[in-house]
Amino acid sequence: MTVTDDHRTSAAAGRPPRRLGIALLAASLTAAVLAAITPWPRGFQGAPTGDPELMAELEDALGSRHWQHVAAARVDGDEVTFAGTGAHEHTEFEIGSITKTFTAALFAEAIDRGEVKADTRLGEVWPDLDGKVAEVTLESIAMQRSGLPSQEPTPSFRDGVMSVLSNYIHTDPYRGDAGDIVASLNDVEVGEPEPEYSNYGFAVLGQALAEAAGQDYTDLVRERITEPLGMEETFVPDSAEGLSHGYTASGLPAAPWTLGGSAPAGAIRSTTHDMSIWLRAVRDESAPGAEASHPRKAFDDSDRIGWAWFTTTDRSPNLTWHNGGTGGYRSFLGFDPKSEQGIIVLTNSANWVDAAADLVSAPATDRTESASETTTSATERTGARS
Q1: Domain Beta-lactamase-related spans what residues (predicted)?
Q2: Cis peptide bond N-terminal to 193, omega within 30
């Protein structure tokens, strides 16, 4: 008995105690699980497609982050160059707030059709409204200076909780339908008519245009914009079906968004193929409602705004542009009507891609620093464009 006890003691001295071994095993398993579910920063994923030079320039402009798949298009006159990794020109993405440029085009088109006027008030669209909100004009919404809040007021405590929770579980936070958007106007507080970006405002604008036309927003986009332009890969979804999830900025899965009644603010899905059609048609003013892109007033120190569209004041050349972001997608579209150049980037990662503007335009600081060195080449480029 004593020999057996001495043997166990001697054996234990040559290895970690049992509890320590279990703890080390648990720690190792935990580390393995965390490594598996916590993505590490890395470049774009998937096989390269299209033009390798464009993709190399894009990777250089966007830098090293946790990217997933990307599709890009560079426009020069009528020539379009596509590139991507893990995606191509017909890969579907959420374009987020670039949707607002479609809503703005519908606004311009509705004016041309005599359905509304620029100064039509919400109280004229929905006569039951009263108070300050009834005096808000459609143009003030289109120019992001209506005083409406940035987000839709939550219709109930439960909806408010679910909206906040969606930020943590990466699901669509927009829960109200078109009726909820209209009903929310009865209780909304209207602020000063100062420049302030409002998703809620564009949801209201889109539903107002649908009310004036006697059609829903989805049909307006299809019948007045995408069908006339042959944009067969662009649509307003009515469910999350048909699109795989995107990814958060850190690489975690994020569910598709459909936005319900807020669809006019950011629900459209499209491809770089179709976005290149949209860019050229707006640039050439052959698109329905293309006049929405014309800058009308200052928005901030570096941009003027038209109806939805921004135009920079601090780049060379200045770009007319809009970007977009949903839970797991980001987008950018910008162009210069004079040079006829433009860039489009769509990605299923929640990392902003606005830096792609540098592929067709230079920031003012860069222009100032290098002006003395590039006067001759700049003159040559201007001559070539004219």
Answers
A1: 71-357
A2: no
The parent domain of residue 197 ranges over 48-371
The 8-class DSSP code of residue 317 comes to: S
Q: Are 57 and 358 in contact (CB under 8 A)?
A: no
Residue 157, amino acid: F
pLDDT, averaged per 10 consecutive residues of the chain (386 residues), comes to 34 42 51 47 84 96 91 98 97 98 98 98 97 98 97 71 72 90 95 96 98 98 98 96 91 94 98 98 98 98 97 97 97 97 97 97 66 30 25
Residue 15 lies in a domain: no
> CATH number for the domain including 294?
3.40.710.10
CB 257 within 8 A of CB 284: no
305 SS3 class: strand
Number of domains in the chain: 1
Q: What's the rounded Cα separation, in Å, for the pair 2 and 34? A: 46
Following DSSP, what letter does each residue of 66-124 receive, concatenated? ----EEEEEEETTEEEEEEES--TT--EE-GGGHHHHHHHHHHHHHHTTS--TT-BHHH
Strand partners, 94: 269
Whether the ω angle into residue 52 lies within 30 degrees of 0, i.e. cis, is: no
pTM: 0.84
At residue 329's C-alpha, the angle toward residues 199 and 239, to 5°, is: 75
Tokens coding 207: 């539903």
Does residue 34 sit within a domain?
no
* Gap between the Cα atoms of 106 and 133, Å rounded: 22
Q: pLDDT tens digits, residue range 144-177?
A: 999 999 998 876 666 666 667 777 678 889 988 9
238, 244 Cβ separation under 8 angstroms = no
3-state helix, strand, coil in the chain (%, to 5): 45, 15, 40
Q: Cα dihedral sign for 248, 253, 254, 256?
A: positive
Radius of gyration for the chain, computed over Cα atoms and rounded to the nearest angstrom: 26
Q: Residue 320 falls within a domain, yes or no? A: yes
